[in-house]
Structures are given as C-alpha cells and as structure tokens.
C-alpha cells in the first residue's frame, strides 16, 4: 500500500467554510452535538433563577472565537474530526462547571429559605441595618423563595419582656391604704344601734365579737378598720380586704345582735316569682301558706315572706303571680330550675328583679336611706321624724293612710279627709300614685326635644 499523501494547510477561505458550514442536512453522527450536552441534565435549561442558557452560549462563542484566532495562526488541526472532538470536550468541561455552579446556588437558596423560616418562628425582631445611599444589588429569587420569606411576616410579635423584679421588702399590694366598705341596713321601724357610743368604741365592740366567733379569712382574723353611722340607723364598716367586707355582709345574722341587741338586720332573701298560682290562695293565712310549702316539701324557716305581685284578686283574676322570698340561696336556685306545684297544677318560676328602691328616710323613690340627705318623713303621721320616734296618738295600724298623698294635697290647699278612699294605702305601697309616677319617670327613656 502506498502511503497516503500529506495533507496541505487549508487556505483561510476553506477554514471559514469549515467554521460556518452551509445549511446542509446534518449526518446522523454529528446531529445536535451541542444540545445533547444539555439534554443530559434534566431541567438544566429550565432554571428560573439565572440565565444559564445565554451565559453558556456566550462562553461557547467566546471559545469559538479563540479557536478561530488559533486557526488563523495555523494552529488548526488538519483533521476535521479532531477539531470537532476538541470542541465537544471543551463544551463538556464548560457544562460540568456550570452544573457545579448551579448546584452551589441551589444549596445557598435552600439554606437561606431555612434561615428565614426559623427566624419567622421565633419571637425576636432584628432591627434592620441603617439605610445607606449606596446602590444595593438585587437578586432575582424564585416564587417559592419569595413566598417562604414572607409567610411568617404577620406572625412576628414584639419580644416578651419579663415583669420588673420587685424589691424583697416591697409589699405585694396595689394600694395598702385602700379600704373596702359595706353598708348593713337595719330593719325598718327598729331603734338605731350604737347611738350613744363613739366610733372607736363601736369598732372595739364589733372586733371583740368577731374574735369570739372566730371570724377568719385565709387563716387571718377579720377586723374592721373604721365605723360610720347614718342618720337612718344603717351602719357602714371599713375593712382591709374586699373578701372580709363580703363575709361581714353575708354572715351579718351571726354577729350583729351580739355587738348590739338593737342591731337588728333583715336576713338576705332571694325572691322568686311563681306564675299561674290560683288567687284563692290566701298568703296572709298561715294555714294556706303552710299548705303551699308542705306540698312542695319546703321548710317554713326557709321562707321569709310571701306576697302577690300586683293585686290579681281585686282585678277578678283566677290566677296570678306570687313572690316567695327564700332565705336559702341554693333552695331558691332549685325552685327556679324545677318550678312548684299546688293542688295538682304546675306553676313555672322565674327570678324576680325588683324595681327602683324607695328610701325609708324621706319615702321618695330612686335611692336608699343611707344615701339620703333630706329630712326624714314619718310614714305614720307625716312628721319630720323617723317612724320609730313617732308619738302620734291618733295613729292606728289597722287604718292605712298614705302620708305622701295627704301632705301633697295639704300643700296644694285642698280639703283632706283622712277617711277618703284615695288615701287608704301605705306610703310604701305600689298603689300610691306618687310612687307610680316616680317609678315611671325613672324607668322611662329620656325624651328628646321636639318629639
């Protein structure tokens, strides 16, 4: 075999044609040389974080220009296959470097997302760095990175600071000088207690009684700090704690009469309305009242009084509503939940909310006696004194006479007949027209000018 002739150096025109071949159909061997490098990496051209395609192509074109310069300088290999092999090797090297760079960038993005999530879950707020006028480089982030960074923005709260440490000698009280008080009302028509003793003597007497009955709260003895007496006879007591004042009020029946025999108080009652009660029940008759209690297995001592709500008998009604004043709170709650029965009829119950209070000092409606600043009015004769101090010999308990209606007509210079039917009610009765007008004024909404 004869040796093959040596290949001569191709001219520049032929080299240019080799570098820019004509668009003939490619052969199967060299089909899509460059794209198959990227096809070996799934998703390489689909990275949204960076313009990988343009960067790689730019580097390839730069290398091709360098190769063209080398060919121009007669450094081009004589074999075309060798040139193509070198180009493919160089492109493989560039693709491998780009692959490593993308992996590093992805790791950094994942680490940044994890740091933002951990920072959002904590309660600490990091103050932003002071703003500068230098331009800041902007980094294009993916949609997932942006949403992960702003996910917990609203969940960040101010840091929780521990309460300031108190001094060891500082008392655990808001205001040790603040005193709590209660007002214990005396029973209407009874003499005034502690009338001829000083406040200091009254405090000492009450504290002595509380010590005798072992009145304590949280293993500490209950003591009163101050004492005030109202003109009506009601007593106001000051204590150190609110719970102590509440104890004195709830248990007043156990110590008031020991402190002063004249200190007679009304027991706390819990009124309940009983609907659909037959009007033939006579609440003033002890036998009928006991029959009502016996049919419902209620002890007599558990009820203070029973009265009608309104006057159903006078209105010829067959049924009406009763108000039963229980002295036992638990019993009143059981009656509210279960109801009562009488003579085979079921009577539903509900809590009773009393209307505006009436003052026992001036007999007006809207305030209580310990709040009253007016002169007293006797409910028996209408004089300027309390009922227990009344000396009117003409007063007859069996004959009711409203002193408020009588005094009003006398002030208007009208003829007053004490036996007139319009005066045949008590000054504390719901029938009193003066009291009805006062209740209406208190319960009616205010009128607007022009209505």
Automatic annotation (TrEMBL):
Is Acyltransferase one of the keywords? no
The UniProt entry, under PROSITE patterns, shows: ZF_CCHC
GO molecular function list: nucleic acid binding; zinc ion binding
- Positions of the region Disordered? 1-31, 113-135
Q: Does the keyword Zinc apply?
A: yes
Name one process (GO BP) from the record.
Answer: mRNA processing
Q: Which domain of life is it from?
A: Eukaryota
Record-annotated CCHC-type domain positions: 359-374
Please list which residues make up the signal peptide.
none
For this UniProt record, the keywords arranged alphabetically read as follows: Metal-binding, mRNA processing, Zinc, Zinc-finger
Its name, as the record gives it, is CCHC-type domain-containing protein
**Source organism of the structure:** Austropuccinia psidii MF-1
Lineage, opening ranks: Eukaryota, Fungi, Dikarya, Basidiomycota, Pucciniomycotina
């Amino acid at each position: 075999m004869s040796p093959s002739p040596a290949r001569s150096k191709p001219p520049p025109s032929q080299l240019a044609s080799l570098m820019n071949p004509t668009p003939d159909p490619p052969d199967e061997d060299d089909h899509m040389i460059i794209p198959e490098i990227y096809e070996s990496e799934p998703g390489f051209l689909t990275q949204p974080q960076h313009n990988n395609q343009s960067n790689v192509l730019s580097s390839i074109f730069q290398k091709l220009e360098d190769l063209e310069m080398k060919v121009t300088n007669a450094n081009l290999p004589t074999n075309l296959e060798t040139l193509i092999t070198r180009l493919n090797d160089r492109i493989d090297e560039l693709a491998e470097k780009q692959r490593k760079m993308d992996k590093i960038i992805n790791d950094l993005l994942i680490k940044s997302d994890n740091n933002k999530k951990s920072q959002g879950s904590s309660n600490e707020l990091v103050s932003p760095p002071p703003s500068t006028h230098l331009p800041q480089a902007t980094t294009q982030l993916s949609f997932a990175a942006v949403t992960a960074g702003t996910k917990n923005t609203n969940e960040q709260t101010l840091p929780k600071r521990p309460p300031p440490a108190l001094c060891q000698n500082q008392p655990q009280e808001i205001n040790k000088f603040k005193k709590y008080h209660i007002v214990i009302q005396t029973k209407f028509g009874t003499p005034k207690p502690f009338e001829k003793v000083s406040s200091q003597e009254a405090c000492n007497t009450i504290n002595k009684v509380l010590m005798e009955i072992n009145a304590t709260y949280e293993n500490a003895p209950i003591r009163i700090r101050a004492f005030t007496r109202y003109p009506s006879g009601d007593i106001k007591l000051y204590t150190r704690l609110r719970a102590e004042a509440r104890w004195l009020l709830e248990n007043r029946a156990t110590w008031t009469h020991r402190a002063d025999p004249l200190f007679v108080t009304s027991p706390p009652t819990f009124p309940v309305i009983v609907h659909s009660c037959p009007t033939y029940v006579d609440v003033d008759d002890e036998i009928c009242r006991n029959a009502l209690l016996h049919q419902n297995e209620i002890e007599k001592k558990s009820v203070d009084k029973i009265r009608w709500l309104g006057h159903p008998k006078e209105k010829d009604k067959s049924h009406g509503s009763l108000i039963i004043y229980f002295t036992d709170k638990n019993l009143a709650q059981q009656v509210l939940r279960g109801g009562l029965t009488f003579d085979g009829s079921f009577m539903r119950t509900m809590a009773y909310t009393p209307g505006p209070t009436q003052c026992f000092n001036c007999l007006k409606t809207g305030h209580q006696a310990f709040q009253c600043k007016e002169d007293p009015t006797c409910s028996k004769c209408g004089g300027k004194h309390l009922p227990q101090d009344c000396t009117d010999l003409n007063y007859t308990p069996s004959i009711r006479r409203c002193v408020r209606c009588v005094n009003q007509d006398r002030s208007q210079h009208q003829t007053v007949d004490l036996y007139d039917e319009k005066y045949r009610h008590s000054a504390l009765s719901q029938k009193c027209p003066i009291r009805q007008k006062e209740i209406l004024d208190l319960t009616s909404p205010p009128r607007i000018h022009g209505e």
